[in-house]
Design a protein that fits this description.
single chain; 477 residues; alpha/beta; 19 strands
Length: 477
């Protein structure tokens, strides 16, 4: 029976053969053992997944210390900084052989915290980092520990290969992304900007789209929607459940939730989503391409085209308009008591540039019920400008991708979820997001869901792809 490390080497060899010589060859390839690196990175990821960093409370300091130990063993100084008790970040740097220029530096970042789990619905220990069925299992395997370890492996590989850098490369493992970043990216930006200042960043977001086992395109997050929570509150007289009343708060809340949940906001296109759909049109079947062209070029048919695209792909629907979704309902204390108040928490995702107050005004007009009020909570992320698609880093991604995945193209994306890139873009950082793993729809859907896992083949491909992109950008010419 083959031992684990032997199976790992064999799998990686098959992957390298599959991606072809154009991906496996390049400067300094002879000095890098990608089989060894991928096997080590799998072990790092397993150890990281075994640390329960569910947020809240986080416990990211334990993960930061583990990552620091990995870097220290490579001879890379790493600083662990505690943001609040039990929570922390780790920062490391590879310096270029030139005068330091933060505007040229590249920041590699990712978060170590994860969302919670319902253990009863998992078929593997969610905090075990076990390997079975050709995948590594655990909460955070995709979001975001797997991608963080891929960047860590690339960072280590630059050091091992002795790559002569034309710009500093900074590594940041941060905390608290799943709850807004106060103990993570906000803490790092406010208190340690001098240590992480960069002109460019590589973070999560985007994705690789796989069709028939082949990467068709790599989506690069260059913008993101803005998350905002609201409270929808219905009030009415309390009373005995044996006597129905038209003013029942639960009934009025249910009606308001139904109206809001079924609301289709007007279609909007921006520079990122327009370019996305322009490029996607070349890859879709003739029917979908027809509706995409109508969306882009035929104003009189735009709404109808948007409906056709939304029916075909819920993600496209979320990319085209502001959205609002009910997530929490609360009412009542006993089954035989009519409550005087009923509440719904609803999550809004705003198009960049729109205001929460403006969208809430639309919802109030839609509900039009004096027994219902809508209260606006603060935004969970800043409304940041998009990253430019005309930079050397974006061009490096465009150049490396078709060489690594023959025939694949790079498209910009506005992600419907939030990331810590927003805080960086507010500091004029060109931040780009890639999930560098070729994943099927079923596999990517396990992010934030049950039985989250990352196929080993996809992980190892992601390690090498991440390295190639970074190396192409930072290597001295």
């Amino acid at each position: 029976m083959l031992r684990f490390w032997q199976r790992t080497v064999l799998l990686v060899g098959l992957i390298l053969a599959a991606v072809g010589p154009s991906a496996a060859q390049g400067q300094n390839s002879a000095t890098l053992d990608f089989d060894k690196l991928s096997s080590e990175a799998t072990g790092w990821l397993a150890s990281l997944l075994a640390i329960n960093t569910t947020n809240p409370p986080g416990n990211e300091l334990a993960a930061a210390k583990l990552i620091s130990e990995i870097l220290q063993k490579e001879g890379i100084p790493a600083e662990v900084i505690e943001s609040t008790p039990g929570r922390g970040i780790v920062i490391a740097r590879l310096s270029a052989n030139v005068v330091p220029d933060p505007a040229r530096a590249l920041l590699l970042l990712g978060h170590t915290d994860v969302v919670g789990v319902d253990r009863a619905k998992w078929t593997a220990e969610p905090f075990g980092g076990s390997i079975k069925d050709g995948a590594i299992w655990g909460r955070g395997a995709i979001d975001d520990k797997g991608r963080l370890v891929a960047s860590l492996a690339a960072f280590v590989a630059l050091k091992r290969a002795g790559v002569r850098l034309e710009r500093d490369v900074i590594f940041l493992a941060e905390a608290d992304e799943e709850e807004g970043g106060e103990a993570g990216i906000e803490f790092a930006v406010r208190n340690h900007w001098d240590k992480i200042a960069a002109g460019f960043a590589l973070n999560e977001g985007g994705r690789m789209f796989v069709k028939n086992g082949k990467v068709v395109y790599v989506g690069v997050q260059a913008s993101e929607k803005v998350p905002v929570n609201i409270e929808v509150i219905a009030t009415g007289p309390a009373g005995h459940a044996s006597i129905p009343r038209k003013e029942n708060a639960v009934v009025h809340l249910a009606a308001a939730v139904a109206k809001i949940g079924g609301y289709d906001a007007p279609v909007q296109l921006n520079s990122v989503t327009r370019r996305y759909f322009e490029q996607i049109a070349t890859l879709e079947d003739p029917e979908m391409s027809k509706w995409i062209r109508a969306l882009l070029d035929q104003p009189e048919r735009q709404q109808h085209a948007a409906q056709k695209l939304s029916d075909a792909n819920p993600v496209w629907n979320a990319m085209l308009r502001n959205t609002v979704v009910p997530t929490i309902l609360r009412a009542g204390v006993r089954s035989n008591v009519i409550p005087s108040e009923a509440r719904a928490t609803m999550n809004i995702r705003l198009m960049p540039g729109d205001t929460a107050a403006g969208f809430v005004a639309e919802l109030r007009k839609l509900v039009d019920d004096p027994q219902v009020r809508i209260e606006l909570a603060s935004a969970l992320r800043p409304a940041a400008p998009p990253s430019s698609l005309d930079t050397d880093f974006y061009r490096a991604i465009e150049q490396v991708t078709p060489a690594f995945f023959p025939g694949a193209i790079v498209v910009p994306q506005m992600s419907t979820w939030a990331t810590d890139s927003a805080q960086l873009r507010m500091r004029s950082v060109h931040a780009y997001g890639i999930i560098p793993f070729p994943l099927t729809e079923d596999e990517i859907s396990r992010m934030h869901s049950d039985d989250e896992r990352l196929p080993l083949a996809a992980f190892r491909t992601g390690v090498q792809y991440t390295y190639r992109v970074i190396e192409a950008f930072v290597r001295a010419k």
